[in-house]
């Protein structure tokens, strides 16, 4: 398949801060490509440049053959954008919102009405179409937010962390919608800091951290980078200090990495079963109460940990 | 252009769904107008309108038309409104104005009548036609409303005289060309016609005819306070509209608009149009309501319509300027409220600017309220669109200049972070 998006050395700097440091990647037509990275990694800035909202400091990208710098209006016709934060008029109904945004994309008359009805069907809000958005739950608002991005049937859809702050049921619905859209032929650039979402949706994943694309490939290609390692996750009580435990585990035999988050300690090891007893013993020595233990096979979280020394949610 | 209107209409729709904004834009000015009505005795039958405007008449012409104008100011019809004094000296009259003892002086120059009705024997001789002489209205800048009323009456008089002169000339030439009057008799026919014109105008140039009765000339104080309050709250509305630009920016809808295939000028123009629509709707509703409920006489409907559009345009310029300098919606709200209060005092929403010292009167010219009130007062006193050239021009220039400055600032800062 041809590339619908080609990014070349794209960078964005502010006076004393490099938000995106010259990233290069491409997306093939029909793919779901995820940009995976923690908050502040540069995902939204990248999307903002690609959607022509921000002007790149250097580099360029072409979308559907059009340069984002030289021909932004042509790019805007190709892309649809679902921003991270809700961008809706809460005092308008869902239908009124869709009609207004459809008009901004040049739709009108019967074609607009038909498309609005289709989208309402697609996001499952036909029954509540005439309610004001401010009366909706967070998940419903997210669905309208997505619906706006779909109105003009874009070839390439940018979805910037569309599941942040919503309930599991709505999250499931959104992930299913993304898969459905992709099945219908839409290419999707999906940004997230949830490893599970990237793993479930993506044909390929780009891992971004501190404005740099530090890894790129299919899940298999990426997990091979960390080798055949397991991730052991210790969940500790709220009043415990996971950082102290992580520090004490570093350098122990068969422990490659040990990092702490708020109530967890993540340990990268070639074989989780081999270190289980010694880890529990170490925790007991320090008087740290372990609530539960998870053993995970190589995944994108481990890749991120391996590449950065930090957990994705750090 | 379609998108521009769609954005404007969307903003208008959102305004009508914002109960808090509606309360402030419509209910508050309405209640304040009622309060002012009670305070001023408007609802209890008291009459506290503008009256006894001191005016000096210097009639150097001493002939038909000059006398007609002088008589007009001394007429019974204007006896409540005007307090005329006759003088023979233009210098004395000007000194009285400069010493703030009168609102205006009308100096009717020698030869005024002859410049309109040529002397016998010179009627049809183009080479001997006298040069047009003009009536001078010397106004007191500290009494703009009263001076404006005097000027409006003189303008109306001159306008009618000029109409009569032109129609008279046209008639004579037409009669000569059709052979109904031979050139030898044309002179006497013309004299007769002009005399009739003078006589006709003598009776036609009255405020009674212009304002449908002498009662209409009595200035209804609500015709001053109602627009004053409407214009004050118009300042709130334009800052509310400006705030919506920044609220859309922080709420994400403005960036979303910029991502859509919509040009920046359409987005900004649409937002400006939205503010304009809101202002027109607000002032229009207030005027309609006060007309129906309080029988406020706003005056000439065409003049009112044009003045509303111009006043809202001028105020929108201020709204855009405040928005361009602010970084958050809260800043616009705070600044907008402060400016609303300052402008309403400075512009004369509560106290006529005629009572202000000269410096404040000069400063009031930066407010759309002062210009708007000037226009509304003129209309309420029987003026028409042609009497509104100055306030309408000032408001349009104000709006255009402020909008231009705002666009420069927006361009420099970017509508959204770049």
What is the global morphology of chain A? globular
CA gyration radius of chain B, whole angstroms: 26 Å
The structural class of chain B is mainly alpha
Strand content of chain B: 5-15%
User: Can you count the beta strands of chain B?
Assistant: 4
* Oligomeric state of shown chains: heterodimer
Estimate the helix proportion of chain B, in percent. Answer: 55-70%
Features:
heterodimer; A: 314 residues; alpha/beta; Rossmann fold; 11 helices; globular; B: mainly alpha; abc type-2 transporter like fold; 2 domains; 4-stranded mixed β-sheet; 17 helices
Blueprint of the fold:
The complex is a heterodimer of chains A (314) and B (418).
Chain A: E1 3-14, E2 17-28, E3 32-36, H1 43-50, E4 58-63, E5 66-67, H2 72-78, E6 79-82, H3 94-104, H4 109-122, H5 138-150, E7 156-160, H6 168-183, E8 187-192, H7 195-201, E9 204-209, E10 212-217, H8 219-225, E11 230-236, H9 242-249, E12 257-260, E13 264-269, H10 272-285, E14 290-296, H11 300-308
Parallel strand pairs in A: 3-8, 3-9, 6-7, 7-8
Antiparallel strand pairs in A: 1-2, 1-4, 4-5, 9-10, 11-13, 11-14, 12-13
Helix pairs in contact in A: 3-4, 5-6, 8-11
Chain B: H1 2-16, H2 19-39, E1 53-59, H3 64-74, E2 82-87, H4 90-98, E3 104-108, H5 112-116, E4 136-139, H6 144-177, H7 183-204, H8 207-211, H9 214-217, H10 222-251, H11 253-259, H12 264-294, H13 301-325, H14 329-346, H15 358-363, H16 368-380, H17 389-413
Parallel strand pairs in B: 1-2, 1-3
Antiparallel strand pairs in B: 3-4
Helix pairs in contact in B: 1-12, 2-10, 2-12, 6-7, 10-12, 10-13, 10-14, 10-16, 12-13, 13-16, 13-17, 16-17
């Amino acid at each position: 398949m041809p590339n619908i998006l080609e990014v070349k050395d794209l960078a964005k700097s502010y006076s004393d801060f490099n938000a995106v440091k010259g990233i290069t990647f491409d997306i093939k037509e029909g793919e779901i490509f995820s940009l995976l990275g923690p908050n502040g990694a540069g995902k939204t800035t990248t999307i903002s440049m690609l959607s022509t909202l921000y002007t790149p400091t250097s580099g360029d990208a072409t979308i559907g053959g059009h340069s984002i710098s030289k021909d932004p209006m042509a790019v805007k016709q190709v892309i649809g954008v679902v921003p991270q934060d809700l961008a809706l008029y809460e005092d308008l109904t869902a239908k009124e919102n869709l009609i207004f945004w459809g008009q901004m994309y040049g739709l009108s008359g019967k074609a607009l009405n038909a498309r609005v009805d289709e989208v309402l069907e697609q996001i499952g809000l036909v029954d509540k179409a005439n309610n004001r958005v401010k009366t909706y739950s967070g998940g419903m608002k997210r669905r309208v937010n997505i619906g706006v991005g779909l109105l003009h049937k874009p070839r390439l859809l940018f979805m910037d962390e569309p599941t942040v702050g919503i309930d599991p049921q709505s999250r499931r619905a959104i992930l299913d919608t993304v898969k459905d859209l992709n099945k219908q032929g839409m290419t999707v650039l999906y940004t997230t800091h949830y490893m599970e979402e990237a793993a479930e949706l993506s044909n390929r994943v780009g891992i971004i951290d501190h404005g740099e694309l530090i890894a790129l490939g299919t899940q298999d290609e990426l997990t091979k980078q960390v080798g055949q390692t397991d991730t052991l996750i210790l969940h500790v009580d709220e009043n415990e200090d996971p950082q102290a435990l992580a520090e004490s585990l570093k350098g122990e035999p068969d422990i490659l990495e040990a990092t702490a988050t708020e109530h967890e300690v993540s340990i990268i090891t070639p074989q989780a079963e081999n270190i289980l007893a010694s880890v529990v013993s170490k925790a007991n020595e320090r008087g740290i109460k372990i609530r539960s233990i998870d053993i995970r096979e190589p995944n994108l979280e481990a890749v991120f940990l391996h590449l950065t020394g930090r957990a994705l949610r750090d | 252009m379609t998108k521009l209107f769609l954005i404007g209409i969307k903003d208008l729709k959102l305004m009508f769904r914002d109960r808090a904004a509606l309360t402030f834009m419509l209910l508050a000015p309405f209640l304040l107008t009622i309060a002012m009505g009670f305070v001023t005795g408007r609802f209890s039958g008291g009459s506290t309108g503008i009256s006894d405007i001191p005016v000096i008449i210097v009639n150097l012409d001493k002939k038909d038309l000059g006398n007609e104008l002088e008589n007009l100011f001394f007429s019974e019809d204007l006896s409540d409104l005007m307090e005329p004094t006759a003088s023979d000296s233009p210098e004395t009259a000007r000194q009285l104005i400069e010493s703030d003892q009168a609102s205006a002086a009308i100096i009717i120059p020698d030869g005024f009548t002859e410049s309109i009705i040529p002397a016998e024997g010179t009627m049809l001789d183009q080479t001997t036609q006298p040069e047009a002489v003009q009536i001078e209205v010397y106004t007191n800048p500290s009494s703009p409303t009263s001076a404006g009323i005097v000027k409006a009456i003189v303008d109306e008089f001159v306008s009618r005289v000029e109409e009569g002169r032109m129609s008279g000339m046209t008639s004579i030439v037409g009669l000569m060309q059709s052979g109904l009057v031979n050139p030898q008799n044309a002179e006497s026919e013309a004299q007769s016609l002009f005399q009739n014109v003078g006589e006709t105008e003598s009776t036609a140039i009255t405020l009674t005819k212009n304002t449908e009765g002498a009662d209409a000339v009595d200035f209804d104080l609500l015709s001053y306070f109602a627009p004053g309050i409407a214009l004050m709250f118009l300042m709130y509305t334009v800052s509310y509209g400006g705030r919506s630009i920044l609220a859309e920016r922080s709420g994400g809808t403005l960036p979303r608009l910029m991502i859509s295939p919509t040009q920046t000028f359409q987005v900004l123009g649409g937002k400006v149009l939205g503010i304009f629509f809101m202002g027109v709707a607000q002032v229009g509703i207030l005027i309609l309501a006060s007309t129906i409920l309080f029988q406020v006489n706003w005056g000439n409907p065409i003049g009112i319509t044009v003045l509303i559009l111009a006043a809202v345009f001028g105020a929108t310029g201020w709204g855009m300027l405040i928005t361009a300098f602010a970084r958050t919606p809260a800043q616009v709200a705070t600044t907008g409220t402060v400016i609303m209060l300052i402008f309403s005092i400075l512009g004369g929403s509560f106290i006529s600017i005629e009572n202000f010292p000269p410096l404040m009167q000069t400063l009031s010219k930066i407010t759309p309220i002062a210009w708007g009130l000037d226009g509304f007062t003129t209309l309420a006193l029987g003026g028409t669109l042609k009497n509104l050239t100055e306030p309408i021009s000032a408001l349009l220039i104000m709006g255009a200049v402020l909008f231009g400055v705002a666009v420069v600032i927006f361009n420099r800062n970017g509508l959204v972070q770049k």
